[in-house]
Amino acid sequence: MTSMVSQSVFDDALAHFCMGPSGEPCGFAAEPIVRCNDPEFGEMSVIRCKSCGHGVTTPYIPDVAVLYEGRETQDYQVQDNSIATAIKQFAFRRQTRKMLGQAGFSGGKIVDFGIGSGLYTSCIAASAGADAQVTGLDFFAEPPAQIGSAQYHSFADAHELEGSADLVTCFHVLEHDSDPQNILSQLRRLGKPGATFVIEVPHIDCPWRHVFGRHWDNWYLPFHRTHFSRTSFHRAVEQAGLTIVAEHPMHIPAIGRSIANMLGAQNSLPFVLMGAASFPLQTAVEKLANGPSALRIVAKS
Fold it and tell me: Which one of 72, 100, 151, 255 has the fewest CB atoms closer than 10 angstroms to its CB?
């Protein structure tokens, strides 16, 4: 990586990302920490603040909705067959039970913001029990096929849910937008006074990024627009007016997808199985390096 990011790119980044205390702009290093050239989207790179460690994807995209037209990205799991879906459903059921325990959820209304395929939301509904009302939110007017018993609203109708939720969940969504503070403000409006918020993002300082380079699945360019460090994630949540009550390091199976990226292949069943088989090793390395692949915050309004 020898070429420099243009001044116009810096100007865009400094105008749209402001994670420091008291609102001062981040000071981004000139040299990207990762760069790739996509046949559809062209050259992309991630630049990083020298102070808080927050990363941004350039070039800037003002409306990220254009990236998800037709529900054709891997966020909607369109490539999964029934076996891959069953494996993910088993894992998600375990994860959602653990998440509800971390949130101290004992009943009420849950709003899940940015649900992709809907599979995780359906598992929240199954784990939360019959007394819970679970609603998922996403871009589209029609609900995703895998939402199960959960209800659905589009983002355009999200105002109907404002002030209604006892628990607001947001898993791997903030990083998809160029304005994460705007999303956090939307999340806060969904909750009742005293509501609980569970928010999870990929972690920029996971050691596997050094192993896989630009193929590390957490980069997921161009769809991941922001890349959180522990510091920038905490500041973003606190600047949204939420009080952090707990942080949990999370480990997300990603080696299989990263190998698929290296091979230029779809994340099909063989890579799902590869990710599951390598997950104990992945987790052990992340724990040893104190660099989880994801960060989860539990907060209160």
Answer: 72
Contacts of 158 (CB under 8 A, 6+ apart): 137, 186, 190
pLDDT tens by residue, 169-195:
999 999 998 888 889 999 999 999 999
The pair of structure tokens assigned to 59 is 């070039």
Residue ranges of the chain whose pLDDT lies below 70? 1-24, 77-80
For residue range 231-249, list pLDDT tens digits in order.
999 989 998 999 999 999 9
Say which residue the tokens 């959602």 belong to. 96
